[in-house]
């Protein structure tokens, strides 16, 4: 058996286990629900104080009796004192219709007819900017939050989300600084997945309350939509978030190092830091995943941008980026698009060596890939699958003694 096969088996066994737990939980409660119940009850999974607050304001109809005495208390917080600001409450996600029809206006142009099908598809729907939400958590940003961890994920990668919640995505308070976590998802791009996984996702959210989902297809070229939807969501709901970490669901992250870095950078205005590329050239080789035809981008260089695997930005900057994004046409590569938004704002992202989102070292077999002392000194490292992430996390957070302190911070 190859490692790949083993991994596949591990995945299907985990899925079966997860399904069994879901079924058991539902049966134990004496009712096989058809799922409709989740939709209402899901909203009740929040802090009691917050729940009261929202009910008084008429946001949610029922109470969360279902959750009373439930052991599944995931949020590790000592005190919660939601500061509800008055101007924010009047707003909400204002997109309710999904129908945006394709724009065939340019189909007869020469430059268009020679494009690959995926770029044609992208261009037909490029003008469709915002979609409704299928899972929302308006309460997530209540109160002062020091660091909001935002993770791009897809519906089938529940095992990655599971490990992240246990490791670097754990919601906690460190030295009075609140850390919260959210996962960003679109709709499944495959019919079978939509049927089987959507209900599981809703159940997962009902347990953890940390999923945002929008009604656009979760495809590679739609990752930019995930970026713009998050920026809009953040601008709508999160007035008191100091910093955002945004990353992929297959990276290693050191929360401790992030906090240390942020402490040292508290005076930096419009902080945006990551694995920044300056003067990157658009890729013109058709077989590359990041290939871009000249018809779509005709300049020789991209503006500076940070690898989407993981970067840090200041909350107020995220709101400005939302404004900037609205002045631009969507671009199929999400991290480049964000670089274009930064350019509009004339903010230069900072490059830092503790962000390794374009791979750790060139040589895949290098010992560094398995060296916990190296990870201990990093902020983000691409790319680790769930079991490796768990192992590495445990090693880095054990009584690890690193003789040679790798100085990057
Ligand atoms: C099952 O659900 C139905 C309708 O939702 C409800 O009337 C009934 O009391 C429930 N049964 C139990 C055992 O909770
Ligand atoms: C959306 O679609 C429905 C039917 O599918 C149609 O009646 C409605 O006019 C459409 N709305 C817009 C804004 O195009
Ligand atoms: C397509 O062209 C028509 C006519 O020029 C214009 O009214 C329409 O807004 C265009 N559609 C889009 C989506 O830009
Ligand atoms: C992006 O999502 C929209 C809405 O689901 C879909 O119509 C469009 O085809 C997707 N675009 C790409 C390039 O996959
Ligand atoms: C590059 O593209 C822009 C907008 O798409 C266009 O206005 C400009 O003329 C193009 N420049 C060249 C050299 O093709």
How large is the share of residues in beta strands? Answer: 15-25%
Largest sheet: 9 strands, mixed
CATH architectural arrangement: Alpha-Beta Complex
Number-wise, the strands total: 12
* Helix percentage: 25-40%
What is the number of helices? 14
User: How would you classify the helix and strand content by structural class?
Assistant: alpha/beta
Small ligands present: 2-acetamido-2-deoxy-beta-D-glucopyranose
Instruction: Give average pLDDT, whole number.
Output: 84
What is the distance, rounded to the nearest whole angstrom, between the alpha carbons of the first and last residues? 41 Å
What is the fold named in CATH at topology level? Spore Coat Polysaccharide Biosynthesis Protein SpsA, Chain A
Q: Which shape, going by the Cα principal axes?
A: globular
Query: What top-tier CATH class fits best?
Result: Alpha Beta
Organism: Chanos chanos (Milkfish)
Signal peptide: 1-29
GO molecular function: hexosyltransferase activity; UDP-glycosyltransferase activity
GO cellular component, one term: Golgi membrane
Question: How do you describe this structure in short?
Answer:
It is a single-pass type II membrane protein. The protein is an alpha/beta fold and 409 residues long.
Task: Write structural notes for this entry.
The chain has 409 residues and is of the alpha/beta class. It has a single domain (77-83, 113-409), classed as Alpha-Beta Complex (Spore Coat Polysaccharide Biosynthesis Protein SpsA, Chain A), CATH 3.90.550. The chain has 14 helices and 12 strands. The protein has helices at residues 3-28, 36-42, 48-56, 86-89, 110-113, 117-124, 158-166, 191-208, 223-237, 255-264, 315-325, 334-345, 372-376, 386-396; strands at 133-135, 145-152, 172-174, 177-187, 211-217, 241-248, 251-253, 272-277, 305-314, 350-351, 355-356, 380-382. Strands 1, 2, 3, 4, 5, 6, 8, 9 and 10 form a 9-stranded mixed beta sheet that branches. A 3-stranded mixed beta sheet has the order 7-12-11, covered by helices on one side. β4 (177-187), α8 (191-208) and β5 (211-217) form a beta-alpha-beta unit. The longest helix has 26 residues, at 3-28. The radius of gyration is 22 Å and the shape is globular. The model is unreliable at 30-88 (pLDDT under 50).
């Amino acid at each position: 058996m190859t490692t790949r096969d083993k991994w596949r088996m591990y995945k299907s066994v985990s899925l079966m286990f997860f399904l069994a737990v879901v079924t058991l939980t539902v049966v134990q409660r004496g009712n096989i629900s058809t799922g409709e119940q989740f939709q209402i009850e899901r909203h009740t999974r929040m802090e009691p104080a917050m729940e009261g607050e929202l009910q008084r304001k008429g946001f949610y109809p029922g109470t969360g009796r279902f959750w009373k005495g439930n052991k599944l208390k995931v949020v590790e917080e000592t005190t919660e004192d939601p500061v509800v600001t008055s101007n924010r409450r009047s707003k909400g996600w204002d997109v309710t219709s999904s129908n945006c029809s394709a724009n065939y206006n340019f189909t007869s142009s020469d430059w268009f007819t020679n494009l690959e099908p995926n770029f044609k598809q992208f261009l037909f729907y490029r003008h469709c900017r915002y979609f409704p939400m299928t899972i929302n958590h308006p309460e997530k940003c209540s109160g002062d939050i020091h660091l909001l961890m935002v993770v791009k994920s897809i519906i089938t990668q529940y095992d990655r989300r599971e490990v992240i919640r246990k490791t670097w995505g754990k919601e906690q308070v460190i030295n009075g600084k609140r850390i919260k976590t959210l996962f960003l998802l679109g709709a499944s791009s495959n019919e079978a997945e939509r049927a089987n996984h959507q209900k599981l996702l809703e159940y997962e959210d009902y347990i953890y309350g940390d999923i945002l989902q929008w009604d656009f297809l979760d495809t590679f070229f739609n990752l930019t939509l995930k970026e713009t939807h998050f920026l809009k969501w953040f601008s709508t709901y999160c007035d008191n978030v100091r910093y955002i970490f945004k990353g992929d669901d297959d990276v290693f992250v050191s929360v401790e190092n992030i906090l240390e870095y942020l402490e040292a950078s508290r005076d930096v205005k419009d902080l945006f830091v990551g694995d920044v590329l300056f003067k990157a050239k658009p890729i013109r080789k058709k077989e590359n995943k990041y290939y871009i035809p000249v018809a779509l981008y005709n300049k020789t260089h991209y503006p500076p941008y940070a690898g989407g695997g993981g970067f840090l930005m200041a909350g107020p900057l995220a709101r400005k980026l939302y404004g900037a994004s609205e002045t631009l046409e969507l671009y199929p590569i999400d991290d480049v698009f964000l670089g274009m938004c930064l350019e509009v704002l004339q903010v230069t992202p900072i490059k830092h060596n503790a962000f390794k989102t374009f791979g750790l070292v060139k040589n895949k077999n290098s010992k560094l890939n398995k060296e916990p002392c190296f990870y201990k000194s990093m902020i983000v490292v691409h790319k680790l699958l769930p079991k490796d992430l768990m192992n590495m996390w445990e090693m880095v957070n054990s009584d690890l003694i690193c003789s040679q302190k790798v100085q990057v911070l």
